[in-house]
Design a protein that fits this description.
3 strands, globular, 4 helices, alpha+beta, 3-stranded antiparallel sheet, single chain
Length: 129
Amino acid sequence: MITVTTSHDLRRMKKNGLYPVKLRVTYNRRSKYFETGIQLSKENFDKLSSKHLGKDLVLIKKDLVEMEGKASIIIKSVKPFNFPVFSEKFSQKKHSIIVRLRSIYNFFRQQPTLILVQRGIGNNYLFNT
């Protein structure tokens, strides 16, 4: 059986006074921790389990639930389960999103150049659009 939970890593405080929140995946009594990129104080992490949350904590809790769901989907797709493949797929999604955002940015950055090449270079086109 494989379990996925969020864990507050209180072993080391970051420079900003917060502690990292990690995703703990347990398989055959062996646990591995994966970074979520979220950092919280002890008090705020304890508040995550309450019903009444502030706007910031609601968004953080939503992100953590989405990460747990993503981990569960990856676990179901990895047959037979092993940590190296899970780790690669779990971190790959984050990387692919960054690559997509960069490609979208580059597309829009190059778009005026593409229009000029297609329509012909000249001030007349630029001023008439």
